[in-house]
Structures are given as C-alpha cells and as structure tokens.
Amino acid sequence: MRVGLYPGTFDPITMGHIDIIRRAAALVDKLVIGVAINRDKGPLFSLEERVAMIEAECSQLSEQTGTEIVAHPFENLLIDCARDVGAQIIVRGLRAVADFEYEFQMVGMNRALDDSIETVFLMAEARHQAIASKLVKEIARLNGDVSKFVTPRVNAALKERLG
Fold first, then answer.
1. Of 65, 147, 156, 78, whose CA–CA distance to 113 is shortest?
2. Given 23, 95, 111, 161, which residue is catalytic?
3. Which domains does the chain have, with CATH numbers?
4. Rounded-to-integer distance, Cα 107 and Cα 10, Å
5. Which of 22, 30, 50, 133 is the catalytic position?
6. Residue 41 — pLDDT band, cuts 50, 70, 90?
7. Sheet with 3-8, side-by-side order of all strands
8. Are the CB atoms for 150 and 15 separated by under 8 Å?
9. If phi over 0 gives left and psi between -120 and 50 gives alpha, with beta otherwise, what is residue 66?
10. 129 partner at 20 to 30 Å CA-CA among 6, 23, 137, 143?
11. DSSP per-residue letters across 36-93
12. Would residue 72 show up in a list of annotated catalytic residues for this protein?
C-alpha cells in the first residue's frame, strides 16, 4: 500500500490545499493529511476545527478518487510523523520559487534523518498558486471576499470566527 503524507497547518484549508490533495490522491492508496500543531503560529482555528474542516472537505474527494484520505494531527518532527503513519512519501505543494528554496532545505534535512522517505513536490493549478491561508485570513479579517479561495463551508467558518 502506497501511503503519502501531506503536512501543513491548514488554518484554514484552501482551494490550493484541496487541489494538491486531489492530485496527491491519484499517486497513493492512502493520503494522510498531517495537521501540524504549531503553537508558535497562533492558529485562528483550533486543532479540532481544522481537522473537522479537512474531514468535511475531503470526504467526497475520497469517494471520488477511491483513495483513503484521513486527517492526522501531529506535533513531532515531520519525518517522525511520516514514520508513524507508514508514509513512503511526503507531499509538498509549491506556489513560487520562494517556496522551493525553503522546501529544498527541508528535503535535505529530512533525507539526512531518513533517506527511505521521498518528498514529492506538486504545483497547484495556476488559478490556485497565489492562495495562502495567511492571506485568506487577512482578507477575511478586513471584510474582503474570500469565496474564490475557500469552499463555502470554510468561508462560513471564517465569517463566523471573524464576525
């Protein structure tokens, strides 16, 4: 069984994330969405809320692709999380050259820790490449329309949280 791990904070999950999840699901039998518990980032949504959003947004995608997609919170090293869930590959989304520079360093460190786990980079479709959770939250905080960047369910959650 091919298992992939797609890690992130997903605060909140965006159309860019969903695009990467959909495409990664075609590569593996099981895709684990690693939801990072990163207290330093001060997430807008709790871990439980982020996991629930991922599960809600991915349930239909799992049915459509035939790939098991599960959310898995983690607070340890990414490479240890990959081992914990039995992942052979780590899936990373790229938006721009700046992402690649950071990701390149991470791959090197992860390979030094465990060279049996590969990292696969996927580019989001062009219409989703500029989407970042941080920017979505900022636009929503300033009463901007984020409906092009998130699903209706996530949009409603943002509106409820931010008033």
1. 78
2. 95
3. 3-162 (3.40.50.620)
4. 20
5. 133
6. confident
7. 68-74, 30-36, 3-8, 89-94, 118-123
8. yes
9. left
10. 143
11. E--GGG--SS-HHHHHHHHHHHHHHHHHHHT-EEEEEEE-S-HHHHHHHHT-SEEEEE
12. no
Give the residues across from 54 on adjacent strands.
none
Predicted pLDDT at 94: 87
Q: Which of 2, 41, 127, 134 is catalytic?
A: 41
Token digits of residue 124:
């989001």
* β-strands 89-94, 68-74 pairing: unpaired
Q: Which of 17, 50, 92, 128 is catalytic?
A: 17
Say if pTM beats, i.e. exceeds, 0.90.
yes
Is 153 one of the catalytic residues? no
User: Is 148 among the catalytic positions?
Assistant: no
pLDDT confidence of residue 153? 96
Q: Is 17 a catalytic residue?
A: yes
What is residue 127's predicted lDDT score, i.e. its pLDDT?
86
